[in-house]
Amino acid sequence: MKVAATTMVLLACVAVLGACGSQGIQVAKTSPYYRGAVLFRDHCSGCHTLSTVGAEGSATSIKNRVKTNGPNFSIRKENVEQVLYAIRNGGFSGAIMPENIVLGDDAQAVAAFLAEYSGRQAQKVPSVNITLSTK
Questions:
Q1: Closest residue by Cα to residue 73 from 21, 108, 113
Q2: Which residues pair with 49 in a beta bridge?
Q3: 66, 73, 61, 67: which is closest to 21 by C-alpha?
Q4: How confident is the model at residue 61 (pLDDT cuts 50, 70, 90)?
Q5: Chain mean position to CA 119
Q6: Above 80 in pLDDT, residue 135?
Q7: Average pLDDT over residues 65-86
Q8: Distance of alpha carbon 110 from alpha carbon 116, whole angstroms
Q9: Intra-chain end-to-end CA distance of the chain, in Å
Q10: DSSP 8-class letter at 125
Q11: What average pLDDT does range 2-20 have in this prediction?
C-alpha cells in the first residue's frame, strides 16, 4: 500500500513538473522521434533533464540534489536497450523511478528518441595516442 501511494505521488509530481522548461520540444513534428519527445516530456521530464524537450528535472548541483533527480540526458548518452531496461525495471538502481512508466510502442518511441537525442551536450575529451616501449 505504501509503495502504491508513493508511486501515485511520484506520478503526480511528474505530471505537474512535466510542463517545466521554457524551451519546448525542439524536434520537428514530422520527425519519427517527435512522438517519443512528447512522451518523454510528459512522463520523464519531472526527474530528468534533456534540453531537446526543455526538461530540467535533474539536479544542477550536488548540494540541491534530491533522490527523485534522474540522470541529465543532455550530457549522458543512452542506447535503445539501456532505455528499455530502465523503463521496465525502474531505472538502473531501482531507487525511485516507477517501473513501466510507459509501455509497448510508447516505450519503444521513448527509447528511440533518447538514443537519438541523448548525450548531445556531452564534453568531448581529446584522445592521446600513447606508445609503449617494448624494451
A1: 113
A2: 56, 72
A3: 73
A4: low
A5: 10
A6: no
A7: 87
A8: 10
A9: 67
A10: P
A11: 48
The closest alpha carbon to 67, from 77, 57, 76, belongs to 57
Cα angle, residue 86 at apex, residues 83 and 87 outer, rounded to 5°: 85
- Using alpha carbons, list the distances in angstroms from residue 103 to 2, 31, 81, 130: 23, 21, 14, 46
Q: Which residues of 21-48 are buried (b: 16+ CB within 10 A; e: fewer)?
A: beeebebeeeeebebbbbbbbbbbbbbb
User: Using one digit for the tens of pLDDT, what is the confidence trace for 16-58?
Assistant: 444 444 468 999 999 999 999 999 999 998 888 899 998 887 7
Largest Cα separation within the chain, whole Å, is 67
- The residues, any chain, with a CB within 8 Å of residue 110's CB and separated by 6 or more, are 36, 39, 40, 43, 44, 83, 87, 102
All 3 cell numbers of residue 96?
525511485
CA distance 92 to 83: 10
